[in-house]
Amino acid sequence: MSAVGFIVAHVRADAAFCVGAPEMEGASHLPVAVDPRTGAPVVPVSGLIGSLRAHAASVRPADADRLFGTIDGDSDGPSPSVVRGLGTVVTVNGAAVTAADVQERAQTAVDRRRGAAASSSFRTSQAVNSGADIALMLEVLDTTCLAEVVELVATWRPTVGGRGTTGMGAATVTALHSGQLDPATPEGMRLLLTRSGPDLVAAVSSTEHRVRPAEAIEVRRYRFRSNGPLLIRGAKDSNGTMALQRSGQFHVDGSSWKGVFRSGCEFAILSAAGARGVEPSLVAVDLLFGTASRRGLLRFEETPLVAARESPRIHVAIDRVTGGASNDRLFTDTPVEGAYAELRITVPYPVPDWVGVLLDAVAADLDDGYLALGGATSRGYGTISVDSSPTATGLGGCLESVLAGEDLATPVPGGFPSGSDA
Questions:
Q1: CA torsion angle for 261, 265, 271, 273 (degrees, to 10)?
Q2: Residue 416 pLDDT class (50, 70, 90 cuts)
Q3: Taking 90 as the threshold, does the pLDDT of residue 133 lie above it?
Q4: 8 A C-beta contact, residue 178 and residue 6
Q5: What digits encode the pLDDT tens for the residues 220-248?
Q6: CA of 282: how far to CAs of 49, 109, 139, 337, in Å?
Q7: ∠348-71-83 over CA atoms, to 5°?
Q8: Of 113, 149, 221, 235, which has the fewest CB atoms closer than 10 Å, so is most exposed?
Q9: Rounded Cα–Cα distance for residues 160 and 169 (Å)
Q10: Are strands 245-246 and 249-252 parallel, antiparallel or unpaired?
């Protein structure tokens, strides 16, 4: 047995993350993947390796295939990967992840005509709370490449699981260690005989390295305030709906922001194209927001609501025959009022200026009341204002670039980030 290199990278989950159970893909409820032996949530090493390879393709495209292998090789066939994922260990505050660390989430699609929830689109999923530590263990089969792989991990900003464009899965490498195991030496043989599994990898990886992950690029930052009741649906009881809370604070999920901005971008593009009498194209929307097979570029972070106060509302259903109140159909919801939120929209690498102009057009529509955020918008909920109100006047000047998705098709060597936002 020749010498091999080992790497241990500790990845901190800065946001909740969702690694869905593969057998439930496409279902209306998507639970997290769990270890069948213990029932504890797991993070498969394959997804993190894919994220690391995408990082390598963006910063060192000439070396990505050499380090991580290829499927469609040259005349000699596929090439193997130098980097091998050994596994992950997921903990919260040093203890194993339990059911108490898993949260339930709900999403729905937006009807483009009504601006409200589309029928039959409600779905739920699970996610592991932020703060988890994921110990990623790697084996480098060619020790001459160990320093290169360590450098990649040191500058890597991983994404854990799916739905990264809605604020989920953001993570940071907090600690990085590496080492070499040579069975031809007495120390190497002693470790092989006395250690195994994660203990062996940790014992060999004794050299500490400084991490310096690249920062995401901020495209826009908006400060919103609610003009009336705002309801991001959270917990439900027998006859009422509460506003969403995370860690005891009212929140707007990234999926809510992404949904309203995607719908608004489509409306802005179609309206501007119709006014100019040109053929509309939504290719830019798919590139920016993603499709079932390709992750979008824009990332909408989850935002806590500041100074929010609960404002319970009582409703009753209407009897369609008598026109009066239906019996036993009283229900309540508890939106919040007076709330402020600051939304950051980021990208992994630079994008053309027209992207910001398009986002400003949506923010202007929100400020003008043409779009609303959250649920019950048909009842007047969800109107918000934007501090330092943007304008949509610049969209016409860059409409041709928007319709073509100009400069987004091949932004960097290595293409788009891996994954899907289905």
A1: 180
A2: very low
A3: yes
A4: yes
A5: 999 999 999 999 888 777 777 888 888 78
A6: 32, 17, 43, 35
A7: 65
A8: 113
A9: 4
A10: antiparallel
